Amino acid sequence: MSTQDIPEEENLPAEQGAKDSGEVAVPADPFADPGVPPHELRIQDIDDKAARHSERVVATLFTVSMLATVGFIASFAALSVDKIIYVFPLGHVSALNFALGLCLAVALFSIGAGAVHWARTLMSDHEIVQERHPIEATPEARAQVFKDWQDGVADSSFGRRKLARNTLFGALALVPLSGIVLLRDLGPMPEDKLRHTKWAKGKRLMNQNTMQPLRPEDIPVGSLTFAMPEGMSEHDHDFQNQIAKAALMIVRIKPEDIKDKRSLDWSHHGIVAYSKICTHVGCPISLYEQQTHHVLCPCHQSTFDLADGGRVIFGPAGHALPQLEISVNAQGYLEAKGDFAEPVGPAFWERG
Known about the structure:
By secondary structure, the protein is an alpha+beta fold.
């Protein structure tokens, strides 16, 4: 049959014929894979001078990161926490916090910017298409992975661009120092403050409730009295810090009931003075059993024997209550003969 014998509509394209017949046309492949676009060379790929310039930019960013980290540490050491500065538009801010935040932000940003610039200008940007494969890798696949890794290292210029590589190592090595320095900001160093209280030779024992100096006759047998050093006031700016170390409890025990010789020597006619601060976690001790001469910490039930050097007889406390040596002055008032012989309160790592 010749083309002249074919009806006119049979000579139309498939889409036109479907349109005329009222049917929906379906393209042969509506989701055709366009493939990977043609690779375009960057200027760094064809111009070694441009590549060296990009490497210098990367190295500069990493160097800026290192300098910012050094600035972070220097700011922490040099600036006072009380210094206030005006920064627009933030207003009045702490100079230390502003310097630390700015330096740390620059250090981290510079590492990130340097890594991105390195990837975009110096590392290979060839698109690679790889078919999916079974989860269990074959020996050939593993060999291919190692080869791809080696090719990636070569493409990244990591071995060839030594300036960028070495400055990256330097930046990454210094940035963690910021975190180490921040540990210093957990609080002021105690130095020897934990070893000293407001007690000193000649300071009278003041009743913490009446704020009057104590005489031996003010303390009957079996009583528990709380005292603090002469010269302290609740209006002092550091009163809470000082009383947390100097708080004292006083009891009167018959001298023949005192078992520890040093406790007897440091007492006055059976009046013994011990730190009120529990040696477990520093809770104030306030419960006294006059028949046994035991005091109980209400927090975790550590129990101490005041007739036997304040030693621990029960509970989690780690060591005995420190005792304060006392005597009576010429006016008949109880006074301290010095400070506690050992640090009060819980143990700490520097304690010998």
